[in-house]
Amino acid sequence: THTGKCYCGDIRFEFEDPIQSQLLCHCRECRYLSGGEANASIVILEETFRVTKGELKTFSRRDLDSPRIRYFCGNCGTHICVKSPPRPGMLVLKIGTLDDHSWFSPKAAIFCIDQQPYHIIPTDVPSFEKTAPKKFDAATKTIIKAVISKVLISAFVVYLVLIFYKLKLKAKNPLLHNLPLLLVLQNQIRYFLMLQIPKLLE
To answer: Contact, 104 vs 40, CB < 8 A?
Structure first.
């Protein structure tokens, strides 16, 4: 369990792993809130976030069609987290509000199109003009692996049937004209099983 609070202590919160992303955002909107530096934040599941003390205030811009909802302390003004339309079910939480954020290690620097000359990005952190390419989350990967497992079993069964059918046909008529097609199908399935499945499961 991770815990945190606002500057004055009126707000306390906690949340659970997993942490979806660790980011440095250089966009203009974030810099209004960070004081000018890149915004160091993490992406967490909204359902794991709990306010354990106080009540968060909210702000969203009225001039935008799909504004972000920002949560902050009504007393000291500390910006705790934001609900962003492009990230349904997630919260982007400001790393500086955590009681311990010594473990923070950004995995990407985003919206570097707005990067300023005084912004220093660590050399080992990938940077992107806007956002990083989307990857499957843990839940989606689980579903994909389950589907691939079923496909793998089906393909293996087909593979065995083709071998049996090929041998049976060959025994009856060695010159059967469709035997090359069966060989091609057999090789394609072998390629899929041996080479492609391990890549998909990485």
So the answer is: yes
